[in-house]
Amino acid sequence: MTAINAIASRKEKGFTLIELVMVIVILGILAAFALPRFANLGEEARASTIQGALGAVKSASAIAHSKCLADGACDASVATGQTAELEGDDIDMVFGYPAATADGIQSAAQIETADFTIDTSTAGTLLIQSPGATTAANCQVSYVAPTAAGDAPTITSDTTDC
């Protein structure tokens, strides 16, 4: 009789099946609401990267232009053959602004091909695109070098489909 009483007096510890099912259901509901909030972070990250590249290109263009104006050897009225030295690198200049080339604005802004896709297929235009974008042409920075003395480059960005 003592053995039966010892078994009956001992209480089992743990969760019941209903408690486990309820925890799983609650976790499923939380996951259903949380997942869509975090699923689109890649697009926002690519758009932010393009905005950062836009700032770098604008700053580099202004700094190189200022350096060209301050430097007596750089003539802002000449289309080719001019350079400005920034941090030990010679930057190719066009009418006092960086050229739309790898040795021009890309070097001045320190844009790396490991981080971006660079398109220089159109003369006078450099496109900095985010790899992995849904549409590369709608997730880019466009730098168009000036075409005449006294003109400024056209620098635009598009983040509509990153």
Task: Considering the chains and any ligands shown, give keywords for the structure.
about 160 residues, four-stranded antiparallel sheet, three-stranded antiparallel sheet, 4 helices
Q: How would you summarize what this structure contains?
A:
The protein is α+β, with helices and mostly antiparallel strands. 42% of the residues lie in helices and 19% in strands. 28% of the residues are buried.
Kindly describe this structure.
The chain has 162 residues and is of the alpha+beta class. It has 4 helices and 7 strands; from the N terminus they run αααβββαββββ. It has helices spanning 2-9, 17-38, 41-70, 102-109; strands at 82-86, 89-94, 97-98, 117-119, 125-129, 140-144, 154-158. Strands 4-5-6-7 form a 4-stranded antiparallel β-sheet, with helices on one face. Strands 1-2-3 form a 3-stranded antiparallel β-sheet. The longest helix has 30 residues, at 41-70. 28% of the residues are buried.
Write the layout of secondary structure elements.
Layout (H helix, E strand, L loop, with lengths): L1 H8 L7 H22 L2 H30 L11 E5 L2 E6 L2 E2 L3 H8 L7 E3 L5 E5 L10 E5 L9 E5 L4
Antiparallel strand pairs: 1-2, 2-3, 4-5, 5-6, 6-7
